[in-house]
Design goal:
There is one protein chain. By secondary structure, the chain is an alpha+beta fold. Helices cover 23% and strands 24% of the residues. The strands form 3 sheets. The chain has a two-stranded antiparallel sheet. It has a two-stranded antiparallel sheet with strand order 2-5. The radius of gyration is 14 Å and the shape is globular. The chain starts with a helix and ends with a strand. The structure holds iron/sulfur cluster (SF4) (2 copies). One iron/sulfur cluster binds next to helix 4. The site of one iron/sulfur cluster has 13 residues, from helix 2.
């Protein structure tokens, strides 16, 4: 299966509060021309629009890449509260 096909095998129990936060949009804007998070995130959570980063946290697969992938340690990442976040189905 492709990654895209596998993504349909997950469902989400979304928290109302984001477990992800970009700490400084200015750092993204001025120091990170490649916007690495928009490339390494497998779930396309990060979208750069205009002068700020939009974080579609509801789609996060909790892979943890953004905790180590952001070259400026500019993403605050916490595990979603118990019972929230991704639920993997065995299929
Ligand atoms: Fe901002 Fe980090 Fe994403 Fe770069 S990788 S755009 S610094 S959040
Ligand atoms: Fe994307 Fe993984 Fe970070 Fe979630 S934990 S936002 S899926 S890179």
């Amino acid at each position: 299966k492709t990654i895209e096909e596998k993504q349909y095998l997950v469902r989400f129990n979304c928290d109302t509060k984001s477990h992800l936060e970009v700490k400084s949009h200015e750092i993204c804007d001025t120091k990170c021309p490649d916007k690495d998070c928009t490339i390494f995130c497998p779930a396309d959570v990060y979208k750069w629009e205009g002068d700020r980063m939009f974080v579609g946290y509801e789609g996060c697969h909790e892979c943890g890449s953004c905790r180590i992938g952001c070259p400026f340690d500019n993403i605050k990442w916490e595990y979603p509260k118990g019972g929230h976040g991704i639920v993997f189905r065995l299929a």
